[in-house]
Amino acid sequence: MNIKEEIISFYHRNKYHVLLSLLIFFTFTLLSYFFPSFFVSLAMPTIQGMQEGAKAGTLVLSTASLFINNYGVALMMYKGGILLSIPTMYLLVYNGIIIGVTGAQLPITYYLAYILPHGIFEITAIIIAGGAGFRLTHAIITVLSGIKLNDENSSEIFFNHLHLALKIFIDSAIMIIALAVLLLIAAFVEANLSIPIGKMFVNMISTA
Question: Is residue 59 in some structural domain?
Fold first, then answer.
């Protein structure tokens, strides 16, 4: 199997897990954007914390700090797969709400101008991290479903399931490693380019 075929195969093996992650994330992003009053109490502590940190100068927008913070969240989403992806789903919902409520409080042009440049990479990484967490849960369920205590071929069945689960786990590990590249790009853009790009875009709109 060549590289192209392997990439296509990898995509088909993992697409439903990533699509589930995308569905959860954007459902709550859109709900909190169009109906912010229902979600603002959940989002405001985080939003206010960031605003206060920016005012006090304690919120450091460096490539390294942003990457470490965001990759830490991605790892939590991935490790949530060990607990049947319950923490994974919570983090997808919560991050979707934060983005939706923030967007509802700002003019759409301002929001897109300052968020979109790095958000494209960061949101994609969040969705992939959710998919990786779901894939990890899939691996665990595959192992557990191979435990057949009353079957005469129980050992063979278990090791077949274990072998399949290992392949699923490797897929999930590849996803969580690969998204580090997206988060590194997002961190660099947010730390160095988002504000200049945002100002330029807003100025273009205001003078048009």
Answer: no
d(CA 176, CA 139): 15
Residue 55 has pLDDT above 70, yes or no: no
One-letter identity of residue 118: H
Structure confidence at residue 132 (pLDDT):
98
Angstrom distance (rounded) from CA 165 to CA 146:
10
Q: pLDDT of 86-138, one tens digit each?
A: 999 999 999 999 999 999 988 888 888 889 999 999 999 999 999 999 999 99
The two tokens of residue 203 are 């100025």
Q: What is the pLDDT of residue 69?
A: 94
Measured distance CA(166)–CA(181) in Å, rounded? 24
60, 69, 21: which is closest to 183 by C-alpha?
Answer: 69
DSSP 8-state assignment for residue 36: G
The whole-angstrom separation of Cα 113 and Cα 101 is: 16
Amino acid in position 15: K
**CA–CA dist 81, 78 (Å, integer):** 6
Question: How many structural domains are present in the chain?
Answer: 1
Which pTM was predicted?
Answer: 0.91
Confirm whether 159 is domain-assigned: yes
Instruction: Name the region of 206 (left: φ>0; alpha: ψ -120 to 50; beta: rest).
Output: alpha
Q: Is residue 191 part of a domain?
A: yes
Q: Which domain holds residue 122?
A: 76-94+107-208
**Which CA distances in Å does 203 have to 86, 110, 196, 198?**
43, 10, 11, 8
